[in-house]
Amino acid sequence: MSSKSSSKVGLTFSLKLSVLYALFFVIASGGLFLVAYYLIGNLVEQREKEIVEDRILEYRAWYGEGGIRALKARFDEQANPEGDIFFVRIVGPLNQVLFLKFPPGFEGLDPRRLRVLQPGKKDFRLFLDESAEKGVWTVGMASLPGGITLQVGKSSARSREFLSYFRTVFLIFMIPILLLGIIGGSMVTFRAMKPIRNLIETVKNILKTGEMSLRVPVRRERGEMDELVGLFNQMLNKNDLLIQAMHNSLDNVAHDLRTPMTRLRGVAEFALQDARNREACREALGDCMEESERVLTMLNTLMDVAEAETGAMRLNKTLLSVSDMIRDVVDLYEIVAEEQDTEVALNLNETLMVTADRTRLQQVLANLLDNALKYGGKGGKVKIDATAEGPNVVISVSDEGMGIAENEMLRIWERLYRGDLSRSKRGLGLGLSFVKAIVEAHGGTVYVNSRLKEGSTFVVKLP
Q1: Which of 45, 81, 267 lies closest to 154, judged by CA?
Q2: What radius of gyration do the chain's Cα atoms show?
Q3: Kindly report the CA angle at 100 between 99 and 106, in degrees rounded to 5?
């Protein structure tokens, strides 16, 4: 996919997030309005019902003082009857109207609609939407002695106007709320998508320049996006290590293959000079096989070291006995030790157990024991110790040979490096780098203590 199309995808995703945020913001605001509207509407309705109920109790008291005459007298005594906001209707047992009071402004309420009201209901809202002057009334009823029904009503027009005003205000404010949601969504999305933009920009630069050392800038925040950036940088680091290991391996192979390949060519040319000499040809073939085996061993070891250093090596870890594993390795080198007239002394803790790859750990010990026998000299002594040190298993291999110069202590772990004193011995220079890589792949450490002409002690610590 081209970089242009990637930009379009990122822009579309950001736009979608902004729209979703704005939509969520508007929906949340609308939900809050509906809840508030519902609560306020219920509160207003309840308040009007309470007002009507209070007036019914008052009128019932008036009626109790002397019937309808007393009730009429009370209404006539009011100082400002024009300002009364309640209508009153008294209905007899035969549904005949005994008393009716309509204050001014209640012309929209048709008394005939009140006939549908059945005694026994306390109150209800009566809607008259068919009239020319639409209105809303809250009507309450109460039973009086003698089968008479008292009906008291109040106009709810003002309450309805208040709720209508509340709706209008909300609709007016919806525009700035929508704009605020869009602006806020854009700002939040822009900030949240910054790690993705940095990641895209880094990938573009890597593809454009081929520079694998580039990394995505990491923010101080800790979120999913920042975790993705961190994992991406870790992946780049691992790829960079793999590529660097491949380059180093190729350089080492190119450099160190010259010697065996030159020998192969020299042996072949020598055999071709006298093709009739079968013995010389057989010897040349033997030398070629030996050199080819040397080349194959070098390549395999280099690949193992590269895999171990980059974490790509698969380890089949099992719980194994350290003492049994060491004895198996020593048994393999028994003949070599006899030829060198070297004593191999063991000081092993029989209870030590370690979780490791048996084959790889045996290769580590084999390399260390081989070096001890090779550089320890004839008639010497090699000592192998296995002890516990806290949570670690410590295995040491000591010899009484030529030792290692102080300026070479660190370099002996490099691939294909051979010290000055070791060049007289046949080898590839890969044994110790292989040991270090395998031990570290197991989460352990390896180091050496050595003095010239006094011998060396290689120590392996495994968790």
Answers
A1: 45
A2: 50
A3: 170
207-224 per-position pLDDT tens digit: 777 777 777 777 776 767
Q: Residue 402: which of 435, 424, 383 has the closest Cα?
A: 424
Dihedral angle sign, alpha carbons of residues 314, 316, 322, 326: negative
Provide the pLDDT for residue 198. Answer: 80
Our measurement of the distance from residue 418's CA atom to the centroid of its chain's CA atoms, rounded to an integer in Å, reads 47
Best CA proximity match to 108, nearest among 83, 151, 84, 137: 137
91: left (phi over 0), alpha (psi -120 to 50) or beta: beta
Angle between helices 3-77 and 157-192 (to 10 degrees): 160
Nearest to 363 by CA among 230, 443, 460: 460
| Residue 412 DSSP class | G
Task: Write out pLDDT tens, residues 342-362.
Answer: 888 888 888 889 988 888 888
Dist. CA 299–CA 255, nearest whole Å: 12
Query: pTM for this one?
Result: 0.44
**Nearest Cα to Cα of residue 92 among 84, 83, 100:** 100
The partner residues of 398 in beta bridges, in order of sequence, read: 383, 457
**Most distant pair of Cα atoms in the chain: their distance:** 154
Helix (H) or strand (E) segment spanning residue 201 = helix 194-209
Q: What is the pLDDT of residue 311?
A: 63
CA dihedral for 340, 341, 342, 343, sign (positive or negative): positive
CA angle 85, 89, 92 (to 5 degrees): 170
Mean per-residue pLDDT, 26-53 = 85
User: Residue 288 is inside which H or E element, if any?
Assistant: helix 278-310
Question: Alpha carbon of 289 to those of 50, 278, 425, 437: distances in Å?
Answer: 111, 16, 20, 29
Can you tell me the mean pLDDT for 133-153? 76
- Identify the three-state secondary structure at position 376: helix
The DSSP result for 203-259, as a single string, is HHHHHHH--TT------S--SHHHHHHHHHHHHHHHHHHHHHHHHHHHHHHHHHTHH
Nearest-angstrom CA–CA distance, 40 and 56:
24
**pLDDT tens digits for range 55-84:** 888 888 888 888 878 877 777 776 455 555
Determine contact, residues 364/386, Cβ cutoff 8 Å: no
Question: Over the chain, what is the mean pLDDT?
Answer: 75
